């Protein structure tokens, strides 16, 4: 009986977190960096279902599943930036792509840029920590 109750509570909590994530309007966040001598790009995608994937060519390779609460926090921070525009890549650059149903907002900045909104940099740094 306790096991059934636990499973029901777990399912209800999971559904509630998914709904709160979808309220942000964000479907996924693509982030990474590129450029330099080789021009190589390293990209990751955090999806609303918590999957963190590394983009390798035409494939997405699952790295891990992120807790719903963390995904919600990331998506809430990203929703504050979904209309922010900044596109100043340099030889070495970082990027965030915030995907909603209606739009994909690309934010790109050069390494060491002091012009980028600090909220973008903070979100990016926290997302990159997930990849470790």
Estimate percent helicity: 25-40%
The largest pleated sheet is described as:
7 strands, mixed
Assign an overall shape: globular
**Structural class from helices and strands?**
alpha+beta
Overall mean pLDDT score? 88
Taking pLDDT < 50 over at least 5 consecutive residues as the criterion, the unreliable ranges are 3-11, 15-20
Count of domain modules: 1
Topology as H/E string?
Answer: HEEEEHEEEH
Please report the distance between the alpha carbons of the first and last residues.
39 Å
| Rounded radius of gyration (Å) | 17 Å
CATH class: Alpha Beta
Briefly note the CATH topology name: Mago nashi protein
Number of helical regions? 3
User: At CATH's second level, what is the architecture?
Assistant: 2-Layer Sandwich
Q: What strand line-up does the widest sheet have?
A: 4-3-2-1-6-7-5
Say how many strands there are. Answer: 7
Strand content: 35-45%
Describe the structure.
The chain is α+β, with helices and mostly antiparallel strands and 132 residues long. Helix content is 35%, strand content 37%. The chain has a single domain (2-130), classed as Mago nashi protein (2-Layer Sandwich). It has 3 helices and 7 strands. Strands 4-3-2-1-6-7-5 form a 7-stranded mixed β-sheet, covered by helices on one side.
